[in-house]
Amino acid sequence: MAIILYDIPSAKVSGNAWSANTWKTRYTLNIMGLPFKTEWVEYPDIEPLAKKLGIPPTSKKPDGSPYYTLPAIYDPSTKTYVSESQLIAEYLNRTYPDSPSLFPNNTLGLQSAFEPMFMANIRPLWTFLIPVVFRTLNPASSDYFRRTREQVFGKTMEELAPTGEAAVVQWNQYKEELGKVAILYEKNGGKGPFIMGESPCWVDVLVASYTIWLRILWGEHSQQWKDVASWHGGRFNALIEGLKVYEGVI
Q: What are the GST N-terminal domain coordinates in residue numbering (predicted)?
């Protein structure tokens, strides 16, 4: 029986799939060779659906109430709902040990330590990308996204993206931060596009998901994507090309 992946749709992108967070789970399922199907959920419907089905919250809101996000999965073979991309990957690796592992050789702890560093590296991206996400969403989600993100950032959607010299400085900062990640990839002995060489692991899924996110949102012919694809010897373009066979949207 197919696992259900709950994802957020956009009719403006090929295949509907655009979210970096849900791409982590899509890559995971495809790499592990696990059959799945997608159920599309608009932003305002995530919390009601999660409460109805019993999908666990992923964090708490400032007022202490549960906060529900996607991705989430339902595994009919165990009748289990799981949310949050890394917890989903851990669950799948435990439950299906005969599938390719994203945490080989007991590297779960080591790979988990990578994510906070990487998320700090890509912090310069957020104000560039949030307005692009807003424009990408379906009408059913865009109003919700505007309201919630403007509350977080304290600016209107139109004020968020940096402009002029500030944009140049912030873009160069992102390039510099990505360089720190590229240095880690260079330590794989030149054996392949992945951080461990020839086989992808969770770190690759994490980095690739935020990389393909840029290509999808900006478009492969945009100057922004051409920049990222060429930086650091084309390291990050090579990464998502190495995972291209696992991009299937079902």
A: 9-100
Q: Is 158 left (phi over 0), alpha (psi -120 to 50) or beta?
A: alpha
Pairing type for strands 3-7 and 66-67 reads unpaired
Q: What is the DSSP string of the chain?
A: -PEEEEE-B-TTSTTSB--HHHHHHHHHHHHHT--EEEEE--HHHHHHHHHHHTPPP-EE-TTS-EE--S-EEEETTTTEEEESHHHHHHHHHHH-TTSPPSSGGG-HHHHHTHHHHHHHHTGGGHHHHHHHHHHHS-HHHHHHHHHHHHHHHSS-HHHHS--HHHHHHHHHHHHHHHHHHHHHHGGGTTSSSBTTBSS--HHHHHHHHHHHHHHHHH-TTSHHHHHHHHHHHHHHHHHHHHTGGG----
pLDDT tens readout for residues 123-159: 999 999 999 999 999 999 999 999 999 999 999 999 9
Phi first, then psi: give them for residue 17, nearest 5 degrees.
-85, 120
| Complete domains list, the chain, with CATH | 3-95 (3.40.30.10), 107-246 (1.20.1050.10)
pLDDT of residue 238: 97
CA–CA gap between residue 118 and residue 192 (Å, rounded): 20
